[in-house]
Structure formats: structure tokens, C-alpha cells
## 1
Amino acid sequence: MTKYFIIPAILFFLVSFGNAQEVYFFDEGTDANFYDQGIVDVNNLGGSSFKHTYPPGGSPSLWNDKVPCSAIAFKGNTSLKFNYVSAENGNWKVTIHRKSWAAADISTLDSLSFYIYSETELPKSALPLIGLFGEGGTSELYALADFNNNVPAAEWTRITFPLDTIIENNPGLDFTQSKAVVFNQSESNNSARLLLIDEITAFKSIETVPPVTEFLLKGYDSHVDLSWTQPTAGLLYRVYASFDGGQTFELRKETSESYYLDFVPATAKNSSIVYKLVAVSQNKESEPNEQSTEVWDFSDDELLNMIQEYSFRYFWEGAHQASGMALERSNGNGVTAASGATGFGLMAMIVAHEREYRPKEEIKDRIIKILKFLDNCEKHHGAWSHWYNADTYRTQPFTPDDDGGDLVETSFVAQALVALKNYFSGTDAKSVQIRGKADKLWKEIEWDWYRNGNQNVLFWHWSPNTDFQKNMKVSGWNECLGTYIMAASSPTYSIPKAVYTNGWAQNGNMVNPGRTYYGLEINLARNWGGPLFWIHYSHHGINPRGLTDEYANYWQEHVNTAKIHYEYAKANPLSFENYSENCWGLTASDDPDGYTAHKPMDNDNGTVSPTAALASMPYTPVESLKALNYFYRERGAELFGKYGPYDAFNDSRNWVKESYIGIDQGPIVIMIENYRTGLLWKNVMKDADVQAGLDKLGFQYEVITETKEIENRTDFVMYPNPASDKLSIKLNTIGTAGEIKFYAINGGLVKKVPINTISNQVNIDCSDLKNGVYVVEMEDGKNRNRQKLIIRK
């Protein structure tokens, strides 16, 4: 069982909850290393010590009195680091002001709390003394030990203090103008301590906590997705689960979010689980809300569908809601949108529309919203910038000299535009609008402008301020094959073949033949294969199957590249932790030292990026499914979150980046769909402009005329599901003859019902079935289709 610690609430409210009453003195550092408003009294330490620091770039002689920060935090990204020695002939004192240095009225509040963490058990007598700095000076100091217990090792523990102890006993101070919380030395035995302090808050107590509403559950293979509506801001929520039918419950998580993914114990697989959810404030729980759901072993197809839908959420729930644009990253500033990621997101919308991850009309509305942004934002000769401020529609410089058009990112949008105008072929008003807008934007891209004076090469950037001064030519081999194909395909601003031959292929010098790794030959990629996004981005819409020209067989090149990554992880020549046939895939992603492109034997520091293996699904389906099973079934609690697999992890350095990047989540949705059905390949490759461009450049290629049957489409519909005693099955054809079989989750046949009807509906008595999960199989002599059925009485 996963161990979770009970952590009491951090925000507190009046009984009415009409007006929140809380004042933060600390919730986040100025940066990862220090808190500017945390001041150490360095002149009066005496024989004691307290580790202090100064702002980056500041003068140590002037500002070396700041409290350091730690990346280990109760909430957010940072906490305060108290690293001190308390001597008999000394005294350390730390004053924690609010972020703005502003005073706050806490005169009507009654409690103060913070969270503390110590690697070793901390006796309550070692807790610091505490006071307040208000208008008129600093209060008397009081012992936290009088109001709290010992602090257990390696747990975030809430420390509380009654404010009236200070307010009533310091009449000369004005606490309507409270400026800071003061921590002071309490020991005098030369004890050395390292404490982390977080979420220092003054608040007003409450009596009744309102319960949550709209508590929803959905069971999957290894986890349950829980979501709810918060009754008011600022509460915490405790999730309890029962794996024995509601007889006993255990705490699974306490969170301030309105969702939780519970990865269940192995013993709870293929069973029904009961959950209780309570809102928490001031360590008081609301009335519980109780629901139940089932988890069961997923087929490979169900796993793929799940991973696509979760990754799609990044472009739906995680997008900039006012514009629909894809944010560059989930842990950014909330307004920096990325054009390339938005192109990926538009393709993901097509997948979502086809598979109905959201209502189809809502998806069309979102696409129209995004296209309006792309039409009205600042563009540069029809091309989009790498980044935008999604609030202002203005270019946000990617670097100081990259403040204009980015042709490569534009090409990712262009593939999406072509896919949109071919996929939405209906006569309804929204489809017509999508087609028209997508076609307009596609035709307005001035690809030939980026030749910089008709040179036989495309340039990556153009700036309205510095022209082509960045001087970055787009040449192979990398992720930009699609850039040249889209440029050659333009019906309005096309490039000639010479630009592809001289600029991209470098007159054949792009090819570096005869390199073999693990028995796999590559002719274009860097030694050992290069980062895997190179074989993903261009092929979101350009089908690599059957794609050849005078330089390469691109399908074989990409299959071999992905397999080299796989074999490299198996061999693990650099001895990184957990590299294996299940844990593989290097690409550009976050890593412990920032952001970089990881490659086998080159810039490999042990960082695995799930998108690398998952988006390689068309090339390495068996190997990629192994990775999916590992990332999700074996390590989902660590590596899987609200928007699917996290961006990257490094087991050699015990590091997981619990966040997302748009250009990494998009390929998961798109390339898995291309593996499953070829949906995006079909809608780009059938385009007359794209075919003309490929012909011009001398490509041989395959056009998909029919996508594979979409998995999960069935020849029957069951309702209700979950069912109790009665079940109706609606068949797609009238007069179907055959039988319907019910299998227990362990595979045993438990019920058989013949089909012999002149209607298209069969009504079945299920009163003999016990609560649980069943597989219902319908066979009519030609087809066999299965669906999951839940019986809940």
C-alpha cells in the first residue's frame, strides 16, 4: 500500500465562507535559492550560526542576510531553509516579511500555522520561539512547544499557534499593521538543526466545513480518476478508499486540487473500490461523499486509447482558455502560448473529435477559437512566431534575436491546417467555417520569403527588427523535413525543388551512409540515432510508410532509428539506472539541468522522456507497448498525472519532472492515432497541394484511402451500464443470429444468451449476475465484438 501522511488544512475560513480570512507571510521563494523578504539578524548571532545568502548578482557585502530556500516543499516549488546551530552564548533571529513587504491586518484572526519538515525527529522543545513584528515593534516571544507535539521524522507536519496569546499580551503594538512573523532561537546546547518551513499563514477558525459536490469516479486499468467540484476556495480534500467492499477505509491522499489519480494496490486490480471524499479545514472534515467504481485489466487497445485521451487533456483543460492556444508548458506563466504546440493540439483535436473524447460540437468551437487567434495574432509574412502572449496576441520573443517569424514552428501549424480542411468535410456551418479559415491561413504563409532573397535554402527565422540577422539555415538531417515539404506544397508561395536539393539535402551531403548500430543501419540520423522527435514532428501528417526519394527510404530509416534507441537502452552502455527493454526513449525534454536534446551516447545523462517511446508507436509497436506498460502499470504513481505521462524522469538522479510540455504531449496523441488508424496521415496525404509538393520534390509516397476500423467501435450498444437486474443490447443490424456470452473478469464463461430476433434489440435478465466487472461478447458467425459491463446492485 502506498503510504500517505495526513496533512491538515492550510487555508481557513469563516463559518459562512462568504469572505475568506487568511494572510500569507510565506508561500513561495523569490526564486529557487532565496527569499528576499526573509531576513537573518546577522549582526547579533553571537556564538550561534544561521546559514544565510544574498540575491544572485547582488553584493555579498550589502545584502548577505537573506533566508535560503529549498526545492523540497510542502506546496509549490520552494520552502524556507533554516540551517542553524544554537549556542549558549548566541542567539539567531529570523524575520519573515510578506512578499510585498506590506503590512496586513491580522487583528481579527485567531490562529497562525506553518508546515515544518525535519529529516530526523524533532522534539517539541526544539521548536523555535515565535513572535510578531507589528506597527510599534516586535512582540514578546513565545514557545511553540507549549502548543504542539514532537515533529516526526521526514513528514511535513503542521505547527499551530493561537494569535490571541500575542495580540492580548502586547497592547502597545498595532496588529492591524502586522509586518512579519519572527522566529527565534529556543535551544542553547550547540544543537545543529536543518528545518524546512513552508506556508506561514494567519487565519480565522471555522466550525463547519462544507462537503464537496459532483464527486465523479472513472476506473481504468491501474488507477481511478477522481474529480469533484470545490464548495469554496481554499480547502483541502482527503481521499479515502476501501478495497474490501466498504468495510474499512484508508487515507490515499490529501490534496488542495479538485482531482486525484489513485494508483491502486496490485491486490485491488479487477475489483470494485469504494471511495469517500471529505473536504478539510483546520483538521475538521466535512460530511463524506461516497462513490464506487471498478478497475480491470485493459487490453492494449484500451491502454492506447487511455493514454491518448489523457494526453489530449493538455490541449483541452490545460490550454489558455480564452484563446484555446496550447501553452508552451504546464508549469509556465499561464500566458506563453507556443505555435508549434498549437499545431500539434489542432491535430489532437481531430483525434478527439473522431473518438469523441469531448462533445463534437464543443471540439469544433474550440478549433474555431484557435483559428481566430492564428488569424488575428501578429504574423510575419504569413508565418507565426515561436511564442505568443496569448492575452495580447503579440509575439513573445523566444530569444532576444528571435522575435519574429519561425518557419519551422509554422510548418507544424501548416500540417494541422491541411489536416483540418480535409477532415472537416461536412456541410454544417462549423465545418464550413473551419475549412475556410484553415485554407485561408495555409495559403497566406509566404514560404518563399524565407529564402532571404531567393537563395536556395530556407531560413528558420525572420525578424521585423533585425531581418535575417539570426542567419539560421534549415538544413538536414533533423525534424524539418516537413518544413520543406509544406513549403513545396504551397499553392501560393511555393519553393522550387532546388531549394530542397541545395538547402535541405545539401546536394546529397545530408546522407551519411553505412553506419550500423546493433545491426541496424541508418543513413540520415546522427550517430546512434539522434533525438527521437526528429522522426516524429514531420510525420504527424506526412506518412512515412512508402516514403522514399533519392536520399532515403524514410520508413526504414525511422524504424531503425527507433529500434537503435530501444537496443541502446537494453545494452545500457553508460550504466544509467533502470535503462532496459521497458524503459527507453531519448529526445528533447526537460531534464535535471534544464532543457536539452538527449541522444544515445551523446548528451545522455540518464533522462528518459516517455514521449520518445510512445510517439514511436508506428515504428516500434511492440517495443513502445512495453514502454507504455512500464511507464503506466509499473510506475504510474510516479510518472503519470492529469495530462498523461510526465515530461521526463531520471532515475540515476532520483528526479521526476511532474509537469508537461506541449510539443511532447502532442506527438503522443497524434502518432499513436497514426499507428491505430492512420487518421492524420490520411487527411494530409490525400490533399492535392501536398501531393503536388511531394511530386515536385521527387518523392514516392503512399496515400491512405481508408483508415483502419477505429478500435472500440462495436456492433452493439449496451444500456444501462452499469446495470443491475436488466440489460438491453441494441444491435446494429436487424435479424442478427448468434449468441451473447458473459465472461467474468478472470475469463470464465458465466452466462450465454442466444440471439434470434427480428428486431435489433435483445433484453436480458441479469439478476443472476453478482456485482463486478464482466466482458460481454457478441458473435454472429462473422464478427466477434466485446465490451465491458459493470453489474452494480
## 2
Amino acid sequence: MAISHDRSTAEASLDEKTTLLSGQDFWSTKSVKQAGIPSLVLSDGPHGVRRQHRDADNLGLYDSEPATCFPPAVALASSWDSELVGRVGAALGREARSLGVNVLLGPGVNIKRSPLCGRNFEYFSEDPLLSGVLGAAHVLGVQSQGVGASVKHFAANNQETDRMQISADVDERTLREIYFPAFERIVAQARPATVMCSYNRVNGTYTAESHWLLTQVLRDEWAFDGLVVSDWGAVGDRVAALLAGTDLEMPGTGRGTDADVAAAVRSGELDEAVVDTAVARLRHLAGRVHTDARPPAVDVEAHHRLAREAAADCLVLLKNENRTLPLAPTGRFVVIGEFAAALRYQGGGSSHVNATRVDSPMDELRALLPGAQVDFAQGYDITGRSEAALLREEAVALAAESATAVLVVGLREADESEGFDREHLFLPPDQIELIRAVARVAPRTAVVLLNGGVVSLEDWHDDVDAVVEAWLPGQAGGGALADVLTGRVNPSGRLAETIPLRLQDTPPFLNFPGEQGHVRYGEGVMVGYRYYETADVPVRHPFGHGLSYTTFDQTDFQVAANSPDTATARVTVINTGDRYGKHVVQIYVAAPRRPVSSPALELRAFTKVALAPGESTTVEITLDRRAFAYWDIDRDDWTVTPGQYQVHLADNAHDVVATAVLDLPGDRLVRPLTLDSPIRDWFGHPRIGPALTSTMLSGLTAEEEAAAADSNAVALRLLSSMAMRQFLGFLPRQIPYELLEKLMEMSTAFPGRSTADCSRAALPRTRRAVP
């Protein structure tokens, strides 16, 4: 039941209040019974509850209670299914509550800036819309069970290299369009109990100490009303962190920092009201979560079945030539790979879950193919202790005698984890050699990948008939793989990140992971597919790609404006094949020419539909104002450029199915003129420009006027960035200053939509640079 409060914050002593704002130990907060605030338990993780035993190691990495390991975010994102993610979130909430956990630390919604990030398996996507929609569903699911969620890591935490010190140097437009929107959407739609600040610095300031991030943006602009908790050990200056908006320091570090806060209040450095506000947020959190004397039981088997269902919907069929998959119910097959016997199903680091059970792909395949002969060969040894050539020879011999060889390969947990980034995208060399050797002799070859981050498919992709990207599928991944390989489940996953041809092709290649404590986000908004499509860089498989065992048609695509800056897209989807299946409708928008560099297209809406053979459905998707907007750093707001927008219905970010054109009036980008405004703004102003031109040409003959107009056009191109005060000195005839004053006054009263009319919210804001 919810906690009742007996005494107001004002009645607690300063020392009582300050002691509440740091951890009691590694996983719990302190309590002040007199103030009616109990100790709360916070625990990892995003894809499974990692509740530590009381006598577990101090770092909290091992010896946790058994819990269901659901597919990590890297897999869940490929489902493109918010309803499914919400169900997984609710199951996580139930398990957290049963284990006495009040706040579950997740989801992680950081953008996959580079495929080398070692923690990419914990994050959803390279796209902020997909990350935000799925992240919101996750939070709503967890919190529906009376457990708080903690959205992390805010903000611009996109690498593990030097993560405790690195400064992510990134411009505001890029933050607003790429790295903030997932957090913003979750705050608006799911009202998370907590937000976790990250370890890194943003433009030189530690996020835990950034008033701009944690107060101006998160609270004042987005109206976040929850508690900000630090990542574990992220607070260096406790007083500065409190002033910035970090309410709770985790984990416990003794009473030293509590004393620092109390001393700062007594010295006048810190207003006690700041402490009161943080304590009130902690009290509010305690009131939102359940503290059960007798936690409810969990149906472990039901959760395992959900984990299997989720994993199957996350698998992405990348390639399927010669109808290699699904496997026939009879015949002889060989399954090759150590991971086929001992599944690689989760990542390393703080989110490592002690699974309740783990399915073996080999065992599950044999169970679903009772009429077939299914042989097994180890193929490789991830420890490197066995002779690779002997293992390969055994596998090749069996492959030559089988109708289809299924290779289950991937990365070791030691290859990708929290705490470090990868150095390349390749599979282990012995696995690449194994794939090529098997493909040379097997009539058909299918490759199943188990990996938390993108791996290169080059050197072997064209040699095999089928490729299944299984990511890290969670503890039931073995059963899910068997379901998809045998056709019991029709694959419906779509890539949530691009698979490039080369690491050198990736947008941040020259700027990752940085140097001398700084990483420059030089690619700006051109992250992932935004870059590949804009720069026309070929990839192995594009964002949004995924095949099915059935076929779908999308017809009657239409887009209609609802208001000056919103629209509705409508399309009919038909299952034209002979199997039940699911299809992801993807809507991308291409903007007209803007004052800023913009991607060729951007994902702006999506939904997933399930259809029986021959069945059809008509889908309507709303495109809100943000679907057409960019962040204007001069206006400090979202802005819609007037003009013609192309709305694409696409199978993925590269393959467009149909296009509709939408004319939007947009926002009038007319700014008040001053003598420091460039002359392009003066002459380009719809009202002032003609008046100014008329003044300069007055008194001339028609011939002189025509000649002057041609000359002025050339001069304007040459001098367009020159300020008006400089330009005046170049004129043969002076323009009266009184006229310029009148024109400047007229520019401020230009009729039409004002900046205030287009603002995202009526919030008090001041213009400022990103700290």
C-alpha cells in the first residue's frame, strides 16, 4: 500500500533532511521515521531485476536473486511494438515488487551514436522517435505495478570510453533533435518516477551539476515532477549537484557529503529551500511506489513464456534466399556453434541478470522438429582452448551431409559490456572462417547472430543463404530461435539501427571516442540513417529493414493536413501471402529547403499490424507539429519551415513505397531588423525589402533602374552577410537614418504568426547558450 506521511518536511531538522539525500548503502536510501519517509530500494535493471543479496559484493555485480531475463533493449527495439514492450515492462514491475524493489533502474534510452558503444545492448535505437515511443511504453508498464522507473542516462551518454570524465561537446540543435527527444517524450507521456543523470560532462559541465540540463530543460521546459537520482558515483561536488537539481546521490558514501550539504546551508552558500525541495521530491517518490509487507508472488513460467514471445517478435530476418527458412519438418540438419548449446543471451556489467532458466537453441529445435534428424557440432570454442581447425573440420563434415546447416555465432560477453567500447565490428576470426568453410559444402546455409551491438556481415554475407539477427534475446531466446527457424513464429522484427558496410562509413568515425577528455559530436543531427541517406552512403542493411515468411502490400496511401502544422497519414495494409504475419508501417518525412542542414528524411511515425492471410486493415497515423519541425537556435524553439513536405511510406529508411506531398504554411521566420542585421535579412524581408529597394532606386531613369537592379543583385550575393551599418558606408547615396529607424520599427510589427504563436509551451525561458 502507498506510504502515509506523518510530518512535514519543515518539521525535520537540517541534519535529518540532508541525510535523506544520499544512499544508505549501495542499493537503498536512508529513512527518517519521524518524517514519515522510509528507506527505498533501487535496483538494476532494464531487462531483468538484479536484486542483490544482503551480503553480496560491494560493487553489486554478482550473487543476485533469480529473475526473468527478458530480451535487452537492443532486441526489444527490433520488435517496433510498443504494446509488447509495455507488457514486458509490466512483468518487470511485478518481479521488482515481488523482490522488494521500489525503483527499477531503466530503461536506457541513449541514442546509438556509434555501433562501437559497448553498452548499446542496453539502448533501443539510433532514432529518437523509436527510442522514445518504446521507452515510454516500458516506463508505463513498470509503473503500472506500483514500482518507479528510472529513465537513464541523461544526457549525451553515448560511449563507455572515459565515461566518468568525457565531455560530450555537442551543439544545442543536435541535443534537441537527437539526444533529448526520447527523454522528453517519456517525461511527457509516461511521467517517470525518476530520471538518472549520467556520468559524463556535456559541453564541459558534469550532468549531475548542470542546472541547464536538470532544471531549465528537464523541469522548467518539460515539466518533470519526479526525482533526479545520480548514476552510481556520478556526484563529485554534492552542493553543486543539489543546486543543479540532482536530488539523490547514490550510492551511500558515508556521512561526509551529508555534512558538506549541512555546512553549506549554515554558511549561506546553499539555501535550505533547495534541500527542502529535494526532500519533498523524495517524499513524493515514496508516496508513488508500493512498499509491501508481503510482496505478491510471480508466475515465473508465465514470465518465461512472455520472454519467449517477445524474443521471437524481435528477431530480424535479414536475408532469406532459396526459401532456406523456415526449416522443413523432416530431413537432416546440422546446427553448428557453441552458442547453440549454451545460449549467449545478455550483456555484461551492471544489468547482468541471474536468469531463472535459460533455453538451449539446440534442445528447442529438436523438440520442434521430432520428424527430422538434427545433428550438432561445436564449431568453435569461445575460450580458445580447443583446436579451431579440428572443430571446424567436424562441422564441415556434418554440413556436407545435411540439407541445411544452421550456424549460431556471435560475440562473447567479454567482447561487449558496460565500461568499455569495442574497437571493431568483426566477428571472431575463427567464426568467420567457420561460416565460409561450411557455406562451401552445405546445400543451404543459415547464420544466426547473437550480439549486443552491430557486427559486420562482410566477408561472408554473400556466401550464405539466410541470416537471422537475434541480438541478445534473453533467457528464452533458445525457444524463440527455434520458433522462428521452424516457422512456428513468422519473423517480424525490423532493424532499429543501420548495419554499415564498413566502420569507416559510420557518421562519427573521425570523432569517436574522442581525445584528451573531449568527444566532438561533429556529425550533428546526421546520426545513423539520417547520415547514410543524406550522404548517399551504401549500407549492408538499412534502418527499418526486415523480411517475413509472408508478403504484404501497402495501398491507397494518403496524407491530409489537419491544421497548419499537423497531418494524418492513411494506408491500407494487406497480407498477400499464405501465413499469419506482422508488418511495420513506417512513415518518414522529407522537409523542404531550410535555413539549416537537414537529413534527407526522418522517421516520424510507425505502427505494427498483425494480419491473417488475405486479411487487410486500414491504418491512420497522426503526424504532429514536431514531425515537420527543426530546432531553431535563434528563436530558441521548434520551427516549421513553410513549403512542400514529402511524406514517405517506406519499407525501411532506404526503400520508399509511396510518397504524398503536403504543403504547410509553416512559421514566418521574420526577425526584427537592426543595424547589425545582415543585408540579406533587410532585402529579404517581405515588407522592408521592397521599401528599401524602392528608396535606393528612387530618382533613377528606367534604364538606370534596370542596370542598378542587375548590379544590386550581384552585390547582394557578394555582400549578403555584411551588417547594414557596414553596408551603408559602401553606398554612393546615403539612406536617411530616420528612414532606417522607421523601417526597423516596421519590421517588429510585421503582420502574421508571431514567435509566441508557434512556441512549444507557454513557459518562462531566457535565451542562453548551451553550458
